[in-house]
Amino acid sequence: MGRYYARTLATVLAATCSLGAIAQANAGTVTMWTFLNPENTSGREVALRNVIEKYEANHPGVDIVVEPQDWATMTEKFVLSHSANRAPDIIWSAQDLGLLVNSGAVTSLNPYLADWLAENDDDLLFDNAYDNATYDGELMAVPLFPYSVLVFYRKDHFAQVGLTEDDLDTWDGFAAAVKKLQDAGLPGLLLPLSEDKPSSTIATTAYMDLNDGHLLAEGCVADFATDIGVQALTLQTDMIKSGLISQEAVARTNDDAWDLFIGGRGSIVPQTSARAGALLSSSDWANEETVGIVPWPSFTTDHHGPSVGASWQVSLWSGSQNKEEASDFMAFMASEEGAKEWAVTGEQLPLRASVANLPELSGGVFALNQAASEALNETGRFPRPGCAESSTMGDWNRAAQDVLLNGISPVDALQEATDSTNRRQ
């Protein structure tokens, strides 16, 4: 039976001191920061608990110690902990791997997992996730939860007003669908436009569509204050000005918008595909007949809009004193046994071909996962390796706020977003 340490850390200093004491006092103890808490009961958290228990049962000399963190600030805390030489052995990240690599906080996995990767390559899915985790030929992370920010919608609400998912193919159709829902007295579009816990929005997706699928250019350079940047931002702010999106959106985080959708107060919301299982388990209305997942709209009908692809993935602290044990556990998390736990119990997209066709993965949330997997493979655009992009969503949200609330021109607001993003590279 594994030992779990699920503590809420009041400050970064407390976190780093705690982890430093653990690491120095417990050789063979692998510490890990993740947004999951193995003492909780959600699918992913139960899966993590099961994975740890199975690993520890086969490795009696190793204890896996989990320190749950807030997903929005975990990476920055880790880099600070690394600077103080008191970080956990394993860190989870999604769109912040560039920051971890550029800061020197994580190390290459090639010395530890090269043979494992060669032996398992034919069974591992989502090559783009592994490509994104590879820098100059060095594997810097092991992908666990590939996902994409896609569009969740209420099939039942759409049916009431004669809409189908095809009506969301273009931005014009998307806006018309929101208007039709509102006119019928049904809830409309929920969009998170806060700088806190940001996610993909209409503006960032439209910009990527107009910019060859990327937020940043080669070399991790931002250049948003352009004609296409203004076009993308104005598409979003015009929808707010016209009432298609509530003004309250400027204060909503990604989690706020999601909670409202679960509570039945929205018909459309952008969200990570990884949350499909949580939706079905936490609401009394959601099932495969009432909710669907589709790609983002685009400006034309010949393709869908791009989606920000990413993967929750695990990396190895460059200062770890337990690199062999930690990297071995990381490989186990992505093993066939681990992949089955994540897919069946955790209700995530299957990591392996050998798991994807299991009879357990049919109907319910697995039908939604199939739709998400197809959309990810079609439209997912992973950040360029080495680029720190996650906070860029917050830069765009601030630009929208400046235009709507402060009367700043779109081009000036986007120049500030450009400068802010480039300072982080």
Characteristic terms for this protein:
alpha/beta; D-Maltodextrin-Binding Protein, domain 2; nine-stranded mixed beta sheet; disordered N terminus
CATH topology description of the largest domain? D-Maltodextrin-Binding Protein, domain 2
CATH architecture of the largest domain: 3-Layer(aba) Sandwich
* Topology pattern, helix = H, strand = E: HEHEHEHEHHEEEHHHHHEHEEHHHHEHH
Number of domains: 2
Major pleated sheet: 9 strands, mixed
Distance between the first and last residues' Cα: 42 Å
Shape, principal axes of CA atoms: globular
Beta strand %:
5-15%
Radius of gyration: 21 Å
Q: What would CATH call the homologous superfamily of the largest domain?
A: Periplasmic binding protein-like II
Tally of DSSP helical segments: 18
Helix content: 40-55%
Counting helices, strands and paired strands, the structural category is: alpha/beta
Tell me the name of the CATH class of the largest domain.
Alpha Beta
Instruction: Work out the number of β strands.
Output: 11
List unreliable stretches of 5+ residues.
Answer: 1-25
Concise account of the structure shown:
The chain is α/β, with parallel strands linked by helices.
